[in-house]
Design brief:
The protein is α+β, with helices and mostly antiparallel strands. The chain has one domain. It has helices at 16-34, 36-42, 61-78; strands at 5-10, 45-48, 53-57, 83-88. A four-stranded antiparallel sheet has the order 2-3-1-4, covered by helices on one side.
Amino acid sequence: MTRPTYRFEFDRSVPLEEVAGTLRLSVLAAEALHGEAVVALDAPHHLDARRRTCTVGGDTPAGRDLAKLFGNFVRREFGVEAVLVERLGGFGVASECA
């Protein structure tokens, strides 16, 4: 079974430098909840500028919280129509993270 992963895809109108800043803010918020070491170990995340995507591992409480924080921040900052959110792998879904 593949591990659950959250994938965020951004419209071309969204500046990726701002997405990177929002990801850093989300990591800080997750660290406030779980601690720096737990987030570093249990909340893998990656911003792919070429594909305009960000993935967050969602198989731990820290990873799920990071995905929730990041998802809420980017949708409020850039608009719901500019951010596509998908859950990949796990939970019976047989897709893989890009």
